[in-house]
Amino acid sequence: MSNQMDPGLLRRRSAQVTGITCYEYLSSHSSKEGFPVIALLTDFGTKDWFAASMKGAILSVDPSATIIDITHEIAAGDVRTGAFELLACFADFPPGTVFVAVVDPGVGSERGALAARAGDYCFVAPDNGLLSFVFNRFEKAEVHQIDNPAYAATDPCRTFHGRDVFGPVAAHLGKGVPLAKIGAPVETYVKLPWPQVFTSENTIIGHVVYIDRFGNAVTSIESAAFSAKLKPGSCRVRAGEKEVPFRKFYREVKEGKPLALWGSAGFLEISINCGNAGSELGLHIGDTVEIVMRR
Question: Which domains, ranges and CATH numbers included, belong to the chain?
Fold first, then answer.
């Protein structure tokens, strides 16, 4: 039985823990090569000016920054979904990337603010568990409280730390400011639990952790841990009230038929070929998915 991801099970394209700091890596690359890269994940949406204002704050500190939008469409205040989406994509970015994650229902309160390094990446986020799943990928994360006002706006707005705190701090990290200057190191911060995966000799039980825009239900069962054991035809998969076949790709079943397969983020997914598994199978985050090995 396991209740968190094994930090040694990094996907092939994941950065390894090499000890290089973000600013050491960035300092060896010129801005014309596209560095620093600052990647944004928020619940701001795109209808209003919030995401643009945060980008403007970043560029005001470092006009050479390359800003990448991961998403601004996290449901308002949905920290757990934000944590998963960050986990799903961070390893696709080049070493030295600075990630700014702002899903912050506690903005303006006494909740902390964090700047961190894990492997070859830096992260900036509120202290509400948003970085939990990423940190599980690494044996160690160097985490600091953001408490040096020199690297934030002069008079930060209590309702917009994305623009006035997290964005500027990320830009300064990209320019080479060490974490130690951003604030004091911390050992205690909010951690969200990864859904338990139960295993026995013939059974693996996980849970749905995310449903994407296509309706694919992503589970907590990782390919890095179980792909050698789970092969098409070697098991049966039950999701909710439905038993589905395990396949390699969508078109191995007829259009409109369900299947289970290893998804691009490295987790078992329940899908429907040209359909929406979430709605058509009635799947929701937290639902149980059971795999039983054939004898």
Answer: 22-182 (3.40.50.10790), 198-293 (2.40.30.90)
